[in-house]
Amino acid sequence: MKRYAFIDVANTKGTAGMALGFSVDWQKLIKMLKNDKWSCDKVFYYEGRMETNKYDKRHKKLEKMGYTVRTKLTFLHKNRLKLIKYICECQKENAFDKFKYLCTNCNKEKEITLNNGGSHPKANFDVEIAVDTLDYANSDTQIILFTGDGDFRFLAEKLIEKGATVIFISSMRETIEERSKRFSTRLKDLIAKEETHAQQQKIKSRARFLEMDNLRRLIEKENAAKRDVSE
Predict the structure, then answer these.
(1) Are both 102 and 151 inside the same structural domain?
(2) Is residue 151 domain-shared with residue 224, that is, in the same domain?
(3) Do 61 and 141 fall within a single domain?
(4) Residue 107's Cα: distance from chain center in Å?
(5) How far apart are CA 39 and CA 163, in angstroms?
(6) Rounded to two decimals, what is the model's pTM?
(7) What is the per-residue DSSP string for 112-170?
(8) CA distance 230 to 162
(9) Rounded Cα–Cα distance for residues 82 and 224 (Å)
(10) Distance between CA 209 and CA 152 in Å, rounded?
């Protein structure tokens, strides 16, 4: 059985930071994925970049660690406006994203947009990940996808049709600040469907989930064991 890992870096860093409160140690992660237990033949790393030496040095360092790095220039993506919610005395919940007020000086009505979060750099690697995974998918492979993005459900279905086993690494926990889920319901439904099919056919499921925080604990445990041996 051959294994290949594909890391949607933005999604993975977001899950680790916003839902679990830690930063990914990329060197420890690839050592884990390349060890005798996981033995990944290749580990793909997908991340947007800006035209700066900082990104070039970072990606060269990752390549030396053993990652196959895929990059492209980022573009600015406008942040979504958040609605302000309040409950009236009549108990009805209301929401608005704009607010009107009268100027105390000229008495003219003004309108302002609330919670305009500006923009953030973004690079979408859905196509690149799809092409790379399909190149390696067959009945003798495990495809490890570091993402919780529901857009990958269709890809996962195609990988399973080719005979591959798909393992998603993400988190079922909600983000700390926004209370939103990091793992898509669409992916959960796919895993449930494949588990039901596997039980009926008395075979192993071809769609699985691994909690990212559990993976972090495995990495910490492995490193602690190595320190004990060296001492």
Answers:
(1) no
(2) yes
(3) yes
(4) 49
(5) 20
(6) 0.78
(7) EES----EEEE---HHHHHHHHHHH-STTEEEEEE---GGGHHHHHHHHHTT-EEEEEE
(8) 44
(9) 43
(10) 14
